[in-house]
Design a protein that fits this description.
- This protein is α+β, with helices and mostly antiparallel strands and 317 residues long.
- Helices cover 33% and strands 20% of the residues.
- It contains nine helices and 14 strands.
- It has helices spanning 80-83, 86-99, 132-138, 144-163, 212-216, 224-240, 258-267, 279-290, 294-309; strands spanning 15-16, 43-44, 47-56, 59-66, 71-78, 110-116, 119-125, 127-131, 166-167, 176-179, 184-186, 193-194, 250-251, 254-255.
- The strands form four sheets. The chain has a six-stranded antiparallel sheet with strand order 2-3-4-5-7-6.
- The two termini are 16 Å apart.
- Mean pLDDT is 81; it is low at 1-13, 17-35 and 312-317.
């Protein structure tokens, strides 16, 4: 059964794992929603707050109703203490403006950035579905077709991000959202950086998905190929059920097909120059495995996986 949003905070898109109102995701609800009780404010930019989705660190995310467009949105805000910290506020505004540069189906859409109630609020697309961490907790080892569908969509998202000169810097299952529409959304750009920016401290990233250059804290080598390495580790985990920063051929009774093993082997080279030159090359390599009309099938695979795992007695096929 799907779980409500946990205590961890999505930095750039809230996840509503199950709708609390029939038709909510399509906007088929009344436009006179009463503000949710217990929230510190009633509305932001004309959007009544309905519920708190998640909180943690320095920010909180709310589910809100946008009456003019008849849809639910996510609204992210810094805590009052964080709003008063110039460095945190600068980072919040930087992340919002960075996200607004992207326009891709596998990335969350920014609707607006507004100043209200003495602070700043980021209005975002509300993603309805499961994050990959949830999926792997229920089904640690995924069939090859499902794993490649998730990997391929995430790779396309990263190719778009990298084309804008941005390195995500924290690729992991919790930052990949599988929506009911069959899309994979890459989220949480809180540790992202542009080419030429100072490197993120390795202590702030997730150890199981660090590239060798992240582990070393080497600013001179930390580029888009670091994201490639981390995403390959996620694919390997989906196929084997194991977290490992070394190349595996099999684990937990699951073997990796030779063609997929070859893709992983190149993505997981210790030296960045020996990996694929770009995520576009990774996408092309993946599409050579999945064949023509892959995009439509990928969405069908992801949609089926989310639908099954959100049922009370769900099991992955």
């Amino acid at each position: 059964m799907s779980r409500e949003a946990g205590p961890s905070l999505r930095h750039d898109a809230a996840v509503q794992r199950s709708s609390t109102r029939p038709g909510a995701e399509s906007g088929a609800v009344a436009t006179h929603l009463a503000p949710a009780s217990g929230l510190p404010i009633a509305e932001v930019a004309g959007c009544p707050l309905v519920a708190e989705l998640s909180s943690g660190g320095h920010a909180v995310v709310y589910r809100a109703w946008q009456p003019l467009l008849r849809r639910y949105v996510a609204i992210k805000a810094l805590t009052s203490e964080a709003q008063a910290d110039p460095a945190l506020l600068h980072g919040f505004l930087r992340e919002a403006r960075l996200l607004a540069r992207f326009a891709h189906p596998n990335l969350p859409q920014v609707h607006d950035l507004v100043s209200a109630h003495g602070g700043w609020f980021l209005i975002l697309e509300l993603c309805i579905g499961l994050d990959l961490l949830d999926v792997l907790e229920q089904q640690p080892c995924l069939p090859e077709a499902f794993a490649l569908a998730i990997f391929s969509q995430a790779a396309r998202a990263l190719a778009h991000v990298h084309a804008h000169g941005v390195v995500h810097g924290d690729i992991k299952p919790a930052n990949l959202i599988l929506t009911r529409q069959g899309l994979v959304k890459l989220v949480d750009f809180g540790l992202s950086r542009q080419a030429g920016d100072p490197a993120t401290s390795p202590s702030r990233t997730t150890p199981a998905y660090r590239s060798p250059e992240q582990e070393q804290g080497s600013d001179g080598f930390l580029d888009a190929r670091s994201d490639q390495y981390a995403l390959a580790l996620v694919l390997q985990q989906m196929l084997t059920g194991q977290k490992s920063r070394r190349l595996l051929s099999s684990a937990a009774g699951a073997s990796i097909p030779a063609a997929v093993q070859s893709l992983l082997a190149r993505c997981l080279r210790e030296v960045p120059d020996e990996r694929y030159a770009s995520m576009e090359d990774v996408v092309a390599a993946c599409e050579s495995l999945t064949g023509p009309a892959a995009l439509r099938r990928e969405r069908e695979q992801v949609q089926a996986l989310v639908t099954l795992l959100q049922q009370p007695t769900a099991h992955a096929p």
